[in-house]
Amino acid sequence: MAGLDRESIYAALLARLQGIQSLKSVSRRIPPQDIGPQEQPAAFVPAGKEVPQYMASLIMRWLLHPAIVLYASTDNESLSPSTQLAPLVKDVEAALQWQPGESPVNPGGATTLGGTCVHCIINEVEYVEDVSGGQGVVFMPLEILAVATL
Hints:
The protein is of the alpha+beta class.
């Protein structure tokens, strides 16, 4: 069937995150309420805005804008929640790097999520901390450039 296979892209992204050993849970759905400290650190990847890029005589390209939302908490009042979150951000960054065997060949560059997209990159990292309660959250908006099939 023609068009963009979004689900294979999201599945590939989720698989990358599930490979991060420092995360206790990874899901496409944001939890309906706060998750407990025993379930953290956790990552959630809800779908976001999708923007078509149309150019005459070319295959339709799409910019997908999901976000990774990381949760981590600490009950140590002398530590900021970002001390728990910063290593997780580093792990996500590593998971979204190009890996050997990926096509096209782009050593040291952004991932193609196993060839499901042109690139998947982190746009920014925003920390939100509740220092008094020890809960921290990171928002990592992504940009995924993908090409529809004919």
